[in-house]
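Renewal narrative, Specific Aim 1. Our central claim is that a sequence can be written position by position from structural information alone. The example that follows is taken directly from our test logs and has not been curated for this report. It begins with the structure tokens describing the chain, in the order in which they were read.
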């Protein structure tokens, strides 16, 4: 009886470990390539080009089924890439003005969304950079992607000379995909190894 209880405890611990590792759903957004640019730079250049696009990835513990509202409290990790800058949720400000709202269907697919994120760093010193991202697709409302980078490139008289670069995919939003993050193979190897050791131990006692 003690051996059975021991095995049951081991299996319970292993199953808990598997649930922790498996509890992850990944949502990925792929925007369309930028088609419009508005450089405010001194020389009219732009750090963005038509080969770039906005990409967003975030993970949640569970599939967001028939969900409507602010998704920030449900997100376990977040990454955005605009073709130049790659940032995570710790790099940009999310407050009452900025945020991430979504509507999903009964299968967990994102139907509508509105995302606005901005880095916290103020552009005051040479080398400072502030980045802003905006992406939305709401039925009946103009939808697009927009990214912006503002840099302090020179400081000749004690003040920043700021360069601002902008890129857009106007009224041409991208699309979302969703996938279950698979259980790491190492977890299954651990389970089989522990069960194997239990079997060996049992045979030795017999």
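The sequence written for that structure reads:
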């Amino acid at each position: 009886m003690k051996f059975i209880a021991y095995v049951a405890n081991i299996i319970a611990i292993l199953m808990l470990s598997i649930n922790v590792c498996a509890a992850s759903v990944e949502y990925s957004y792929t925007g369309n390539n930028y088609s419009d640019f508005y450089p405010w730079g001194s020389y009219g250049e732009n750090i963005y080009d038509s080969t770039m696009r906005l990409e967003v990835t975030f993970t949640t513990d569970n599939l967001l089924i028939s969900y409507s509202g602010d998704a920030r409290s449900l997100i376990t990790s977040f990454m955005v890439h605009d073709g130049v800058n790659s940032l995570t949720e710790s790099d940009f400000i999310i407050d009452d003005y900025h945020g991430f709202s979504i509507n999903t269907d009964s299968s967990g697919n994102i139907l509508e969304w509105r995302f606005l994120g901005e880095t916290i760093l103020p552009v005051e010193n040479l080398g400072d950079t502030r980045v802003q991202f905006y992406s939305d697709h709401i039925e009946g409302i103009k939808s697009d992607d927009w990214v912006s980078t503002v840099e302090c490139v020179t400081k000749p008289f004690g003040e920043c000379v700021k360069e601002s670069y902008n890129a857009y995919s106007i009224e041409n939003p991208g699309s979302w995909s969703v996938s279950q993050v698979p259980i790491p193979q190492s977890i299954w190897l651990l389970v089989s190894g522990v069960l194997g050791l239990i079997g060996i131990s049992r045979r030795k006692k017999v």
